[in-house]
Amino acid sequence: MFTGLVEATGKITSLESQGPGMRIVVDAGDLADGVQIGDSIANNGCCLTVIEATGSYLAFEAGPETLAKTSLGSKQVGDSLNLERSLQVGDRLGGHLVTGHVDARGVLDERTDDAEWSTLWFKVPKTLIRQMAPKGSITVEGVSLTLVDVEADRFSVALIPHTLEVTTLGGLQPGDTVNLETDLLAKYVEQQLSAWSPRSES
After folding, report:
1. Residue 62: inside a domain, yes or no?
2. Would 71 be classed as within a structural domain?
3. End residue of a domain, out of 85, 115, 143
4. 196: CB partners within 8 A, 6+ apart
5. Residue 131 domain-assigned?
6. 172 close to 111: Cβ distance less than 8 angstroms
7. SS3 for 77?
């Protein structure tokens, strides 16, 4: 479990094909201190298991499902990733509950910059819109954000200068693909509502 509060940005240093999957090596900098094999790290919001830790370099394996359905499948050596270690019992929950299981990919549809602030609109599969509401939570590339406006097939978020500076979101341009995870509670509410049907009265 994660919070969507990015701890650091890492850089991909190696991509190695392994059958249908990929071995990904990331220079995680100081975030790698104390990380052990088997630990879970969110990479752009996608939970991956550390299979090797050497200094600041962390290695992961991504299967074909992950590569096909997340933005990791289009990454190249030199690209940056938002990194977050999994929660420990007693940690502060500063963002919102994030599982690290990407629901779908979205596409940056529109970007408006106002001095050091930005408003971003993302196109999303319509099936996800039912799990979104203004002032609710959304995770974009592993970053916990507050929804501003929600339309039939897209939503907007307002990014402060700090978020633009310390995450990969500042470099996004229209057409870029991002990982999306909707709010965990919204998923359960939608599931319950879709499964519920009034009992017929006798």
Report:
1. yes
2. yes
3. 85
4. none
5. yes
6. yes
7. coil
CA 152 to chain centre: 22
Q: Would you state the pLDDT for residue 184?
A: 75
Secondary element (H or E) of residue 162: helix 161-166
What is the maximum span of the chain, computed from C-alpha positions, in angstroms? 69
Rounded CA gap, 115 and 120, in Å?
Answer: 14
CATH code for the domain in which residue 164 is found: 2.40.30.20
* Contact status, residue 178 vs residue 122, Cβ threshold 8 Å: yes
Claim: this prediction has a pTM higher than 0.85: yes
Pair type for strands 8-18 and 21-27: antiparallel
- Determine the pLDDT at residue 161: 97
Inside any domain, residue 198: no
The C-alpha atoms of residue 36 and residue 38 are separated, in whole angstroms, by 6
Q: Is 25 helix (H, G, I), strand (E, B) or coil?
A: strand
How far apart (Å, rounded) are the C-alpha atoms in residues 93 and 70? 25
Tens of pLDDT along 82-141? 999 998 776 777 778 899 999 999 999 999 999 999 999 999 999 899 899 999 999 999
Spatial separation of the C-alpha atoms in residues 104 and 19, rounded to whole Å? 24
Q: Of 118, 119, 153, 155, which Cα lies nearest the Cα of 136? A: 155
